[in-house]
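Take a careful look at the sequence and tokenised backbone pasted below. I need to know what the token row says about the fold.
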Amino acid sequence: MYQGVEINESTPRPLEQLLENVHVSIYSSFCDRVLAAQASFVNDPGTPRLGLYKDNLLQVPLMDTLTVANYKGKLESIYAGALFLYLYVPKNVARACLEQQSLAPIPERLRLRAGGQLAIVRDPFDQITANEIVETYNRYGCSNATREDVEFFMAVPHTSEFNAPHDDRRVKIRRAVFGRFDIAVIGPALYH
């Protein structure tokens, strides 16, 4: 399981560099270890026959831990080279998500009506305002979101479950279980 970090950077350029370091060095190395573990599973003589699925398991890191029980189910792929996506939440929620490596602590008021999670493509140092983030939440049905709800960011990997709505490339929506999930970095959002 990935162990994320909390940072407390208060200026944009150093925050950008820290996030880049975590993405390129730390999380990419973690994805390499995930692939090695998947290869070990795939190549184990006791693993059931995987057929064409085997090649995918050797090339794409998964959010899920691969087991004999789940290897044929729908698994969430990590786009290892993709930039992080950002979830904006209250500080205590970000810390709970980081500690648990899970999206479960996210309150209902910050979840989409159909059970989805909204991720913002824009970086937390990218001259955005808290009001813009709140308006985005409101536009997607989280009408009770407030400025206090978006004080912290969580950097998460872009996975196969995040999809862009047809009319807005600034957000991604994940309609999957609010369970275990890699939370790479949390920290205060640096609003403009």
